[in-house]
Amino acid sequence: MTYDEALTLGNILQDRADNLPGDEIVYAISDRDSYRRTLELYLKDGVLTSVEQMLLWEERRRLGITEIVHDILLEQLVSSWQRKGKSVQVHTFRGGVSGA
User: Fold this and answer.
1) What does the pLDDT look like over 85-99, one tens digit per residue?
2) Residues in a beta bridge with 90
3) Is residue 97 situated within a structural domain?
4) What pLDDT, in 10s, does the model give residues 21-72?
5) CA 88-93-95 angle, 5° bins
6) 89 beta partners
7) Cβ atoms of residues 55 and 48 within 8 Å
8) Backbone angles phi, psi at 47, to 5 degrees
9) Domain that holds residue 58
10) Does residue 96 form part of some domain?
11) Cβ contacts of residue 40 below 8 Å, gap of 6+?
């Protein structure tokens, strides 16, 4: 299986995982999982700055990630971190086509 085939399959798996109940994060080789890893990296220090959100907006545009998917992933990650007792701050972002 080539990388492109694996990526296509991973994207299909991610789309199907959206129909599963609950807010668990599903991991697969996909554009969305690549974006999720980038989002996790920016959240690692507990603060998502407006500059980081601008960079994430550009990454979403490049990968074809919708703002809705971004919001779902962000909510899942923040909830996961808060359940672990970690504080997360998301700064206001007004940029791109619409706010993140």
Assistant:
1) 999 998 887 665 444
2) 48
3) no
4) 766 666 656 788 889 999 999 999 999 999 999 999 999 999 889 999 999 9
5) 150
6) 47
7) no
8) -135, 130
9) 3-90
10) no
11) 77
Q: Amino acid identity of 72? A: I
What three-state secondary structure class fits 82?
helix
- What is the distance between the alpha carbons of residues 94 and 54, in angstroms, rounded to a whole number? 9
Q: How many domains does the chain have?
A: 1
Distance, CA of 79 to CA of 23 (rounded, Å): 9
Whole-model pTM above 0.90?
no
The C-alpha angle with vertex 17 and arms to 11 and 22, in degrees rounded to 5, equals 150
Beta-carbon count within 10 A of 89 CB: 11
The verdict on residue 100 lying in a domain is: no
Q: Which pair of tokens denotes residue 65? A: 């990630």
Band (11; pLDDT cuts 50, 70, 90)? confident
Q: Which H or E run includes 79?
A: helix 67-83
Structure tokens at 18: 């959206």
Residue 34 lies in a domain: yes
The token pair that represents 5 in the structure block: 């085939």
